[in-house]
Inverse folding.
């Protein structure tokens, strides 16, 4: 609603003035009017602004005097009712040698909320392993009442969508809304200091009576997420307690601290594959925060604490106001830490903010701030000498500089130090939001207005309905919707940018609040050419340089560079988009059902059919009618009822149709396979992603530790083995006896496959098994097997070739079983990986780089080094095969356009030459 005119105010007070008179919040004044405690406003303007005269003030004063007020408790009284962390936990937060488990964290916040009306605990949902995922709200009691919380959400929601809220209507919302700040305390569960700090911060605010804290409580809604990974907290707590008091105290765990994705749980912010990510995104979408403080820890040998401003480059799709927010908040926090005498604080160092995988809020109106504290050995103190400190992070922690004015002079560093730095930083973050409440809300409104008023190209992206992979297309649309992107569907054909699109096309306009999020995901990245020195090596991004989702997912998307007409037949899609399986019967004679190999859904469908005991074969040659392609799954028409097959395609999102296959046509029988996945003690993140993808598509597998492989006899148990992406040393040598910090490691987790394990793999393949090696793990296999394959990049220095996470074009033989279902030109995610050359007759190339620049999105230097060379090869070895994949085919569950390379490599282990018969497949 708009502001009142000056003429309206003659003799009247606004809600804000009345609230100030009675020392209450505007929310509480309105709430008491709505529930009848206070009389209606003296006047309501045509614009809906409440106005109050002196008579109303006098009447309200009498009413409030007669109502028994909630007594303001003094600090001593509050302290006697609110449990201290030590009283509840039996330990001080930051106490050396102790870490709480997740149940204790949940228990303390619950007890705090029971004792204080300034604290509320909400369970947003369950973690991957079923633990409660918490958000803890801390604010003044009147701000936490349900009606006040909802009023704040409604106000921020209206500011978020500037298309329906004029600047005049935004003004009273800004007057009354509380700024919302999220502290995302511990994403990585071995970076535990911030979670401990969050408990201390909640307690301090629950009992505080000083002016600065009361200002924070009155003006800001603080949302604490104690940990983004409760399962990891449980793992870390158990691991630390297990080795406490031994030489191995505080060493890192030998497995991922998230059940699937480990450290990559904060690289999931746009794919939103994990349960925890979706819970947090739902919270962000509901509460519309203005700022988020994402608190981390880094290695122990560099600076003590890092906050932005970030180094270049920043994603150009982040509004400049967001990027200035990094500087404003980060500089304020650095100043407060330095004022408190905390040395070793650095700004504008180490980290960029280029990839949207790093944060969600920067594309949704909130400034997502990062901090990184130096680590101890979990809760074990470390002693560092000056010579231990190094400049591995690109800044020498011993040297005074403009961005590090108070260096740290070595000494002891403890979990208590981390908690102390984090606590000062968190309070500075909240103080800034409280003291500048109006500015933060005005900026939030400005950001939304800029996004919604976009008037430059591109104006939109169109996703046509005829796609190779409808399931991946639906997944792309669904994740856009989860990110608050409005998606529209054409109800009739329409023209845009000189192209006519059919009905059923989806349109994503960029003149909407979440336009920056849509744009950064849908457009091509051109990573800037930043060099360490002129003509020197690339200043590589902290994360990848090209993430364009349509390219990664194999979805056709058309960029629109002309303004869209106002009268296009577009309808907002209000329900989440989901893959819809189809089953098309055909007229005339049919002998089989064919499932389209061009969609990832074929893998899911085949697993489901195997579960139901239905025989499946794969097409080898295209049919004369053109309705069957190499790799299509074929089921004899009488092997399954139409109703049962319809159930399969609806469950998996696959496309099936009735076709006529001549009896005796060559096919490949497709039997179920027994799959083993190597899991080293070095905690490979790619291994975790592999498990997540395999489970998502119904593949059964068995995890194999190094000793399981060294034991041998693998061919008796498995048809195919997968070695996920990891450096060759992690495959062969495994975990060393000492960590990189020279701490001894528990001996039962030391070592890798060694000579015995590599010999067991060689025997497995020689005896007819299939081995799949992803990216750098291929180097270990090539060397150990003496394969007739070379890595073309092995001796190329970084200044001659570099490709740090870019999308490259490869040319695929899609008639080969490893290429089934792929387009001839396919995009792969290449991350300074492997490129193969060979002239041996036992080596078959299935995908190679073209003889032109293969870059589709991101950055590549020295592309000539890989032109014409192999990206995917199949090597015969004894009675079996080795598949070498030189890129990341399932990278972070983003690269869905190349999932089928993984699936094809697994499925091929169950294939054998057959002919198609009337109702069955006959194995020859």
């Amino acid at each position: 609603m708009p502001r009142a005119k000056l003429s309206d105010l003659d003799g009247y007070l606004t809600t804000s003035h009345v609230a100030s008179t009675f020392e209450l919040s505007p929310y509480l004044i309105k709430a008491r009017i709505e529930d009848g405690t206070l009389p209606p406003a003296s006047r309501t303007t045509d614009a809906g602004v409440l106005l109050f005269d002196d008579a109303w003030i006098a009447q309200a004063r009498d009413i409030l005097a007669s109502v028994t007020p909630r007594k303001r408790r003094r600090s001593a009284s509050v302290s006697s009712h609110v449990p201290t962390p030590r009283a509840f936990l039996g330990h001080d937060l930051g106490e050396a040698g102790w870490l709480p488990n997740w149940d204790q964290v949940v228990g303390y916040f619950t007890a705090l909320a029971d004792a204080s009306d300034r604290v509320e605990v909400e369970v947003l949902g369950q973690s991957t392993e079923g633990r409660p995922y918490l958000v803890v709200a801390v604010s003044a009691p009147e701000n936490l009442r349900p009606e006040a919380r909802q009023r704040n959400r409604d106000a921020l929601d209206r500011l978020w969508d500037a298309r329906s809220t004029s600047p005049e209507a935004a003004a009273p919302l800004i007057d009354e809304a509380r700024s919302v700040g999220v502290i995302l305390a511990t994403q990585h569960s071995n970076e535990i200091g911030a979670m401990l700090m969050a408990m201390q911060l909640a307690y301090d605010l629950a009992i505080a009576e000083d002016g600065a804290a009361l200002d924070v409580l009155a003006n800001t809604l603080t949302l604490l997420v104690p940990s983004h990974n409760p399962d990891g907290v449980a793992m870390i707590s158990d691991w630390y307690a297990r080795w406490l008091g031994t030489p191995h105290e505080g060493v890192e765990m030998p497995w991922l601290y998230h059940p699937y994705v480990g450290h990559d749980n904060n690289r999931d912010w746009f794919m939103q594959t994990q349960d925890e990510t979706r819970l947090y995104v739902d919270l962000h979408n509901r509460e519309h925060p203005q700022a988020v403080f994402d608190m981390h820890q880094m290695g122990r040998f560099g600076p003590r604490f890092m906050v932005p401003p970030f180094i270049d480059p920043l994603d150009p799709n982040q509004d400049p106001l967001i990027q200035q927010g990094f500087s404003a908040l980060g500089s304020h926090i650095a100043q407060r830490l330095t004022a408190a005498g905390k040395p070793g604080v650095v700004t504008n160092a180490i980290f960029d903010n280029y990839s949207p995988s790093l944060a969600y809020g920067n594309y949704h109106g909130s400034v997502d701030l990062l901090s990184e504290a130096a680590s101890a050995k979990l809760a074990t103190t470390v002693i560092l000498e000056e010579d231990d400190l190094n400049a591995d992070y690109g800044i020498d922690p011993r040297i005074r500089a403009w961005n590090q004015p108070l260096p740290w002079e070595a000494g002891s560093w403890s979990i208590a130090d981390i908690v102390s730095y984090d606590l000062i930083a968190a309070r500075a973050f909240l103080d800034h939001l409280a003291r500048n409440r109006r500015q933060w809300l005005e900026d939030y409104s400005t950001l939304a207005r800029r996004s919604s008023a976009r008037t430059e190209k591109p104006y939109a992206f169109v996703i046509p309905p005829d796609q190779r992979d409808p399931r991946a297309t639906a997944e792309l649309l669904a994740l856009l919707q989860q990110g608050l992107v409005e998606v529209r569907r054409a109800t009739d054909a329409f023209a845009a940018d000189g192209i006519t699109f059919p009905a059923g096309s989806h349109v994503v306009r960029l003149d909407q609040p979440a336009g920056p999020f849509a744009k950064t995901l849908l457009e091509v990245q051109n990573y800037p050419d930043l060099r360490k020195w002129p003509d020197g090596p690339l200043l590589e991004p902290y994360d990848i340089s090209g993430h364009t989702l349509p390219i990664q997912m194999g979805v056709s998307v058309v960029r629109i560079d002309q303004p869209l007409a106002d009268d296009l037949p577009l309808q907002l899609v209000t329900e989440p988009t989901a893959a819809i399986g189809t089953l098309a019967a055909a007229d005339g004679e049919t002998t089989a059902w064919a499932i389209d190999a061009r969609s990832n859904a074929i893998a899911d469908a085949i697993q489901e059919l195997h579960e139901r005991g239905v025989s499946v074969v794969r097409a080898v040659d295209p049919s004369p009618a053109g309705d069957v392609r190499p790799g299509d799954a074929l089921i004899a028409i009488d092997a399954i009822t139409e109703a049962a097959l319809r159930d399969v395609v609806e469950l998996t999102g696959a496309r099936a149709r009735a076709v006529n296959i001549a009896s005796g046509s060559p096919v490949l029988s497709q039997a179920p396979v027994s799959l083993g996945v190597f899991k080293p003690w070095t905690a490979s993140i790619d291994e975790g992603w592999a498990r997540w993808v395999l489970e998502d598509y119904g593949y059964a597998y068995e995890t194999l530790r190094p000793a399981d492989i060294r034991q041998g006899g693998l061919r008796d148990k498995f048809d195919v083995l997968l070695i996920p992406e990891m450096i060759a040393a992690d495959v062969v040598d495994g975990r060393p006896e000492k960590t990189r910090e020279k701490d001894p490691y528990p001996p039962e987790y030391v070592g890798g496959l060694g000579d015995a394990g590599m010999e067991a793999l060689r025997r497995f393949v020689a005896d007819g098994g299939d081995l799949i090696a992803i990216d750098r793990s291929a180097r270990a296999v090539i060397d150990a097997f003496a394969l007739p394959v070379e890595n073309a990049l092995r001796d190329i220095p970084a200044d001659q070739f570099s490709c740090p996470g870019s999308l490259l074009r490869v040319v695929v033989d899609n008639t080969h079983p490893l290429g089934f279902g792929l387009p001839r030109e396919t995009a792969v995610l290449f991350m300074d990986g492997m490129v193969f050359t060979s002239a041996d007759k036992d080596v078959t190339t299935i995908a190679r780089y073209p003889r032109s620049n293969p870059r589709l999105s991101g950055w590549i230097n020295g592309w000539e080094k890989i032109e014409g060379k192999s990206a995917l090869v199949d090597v015969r070895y004894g009675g079996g095969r080795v598949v070498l994949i030189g890129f990341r085919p399932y990278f972070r569950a983003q690269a869905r356009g190349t999932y089928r390379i993984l699936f094809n490599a697994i499925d091929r282990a169950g294939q054998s030459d057959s002919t198609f018969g009337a109702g069955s497949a006959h194995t020859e």
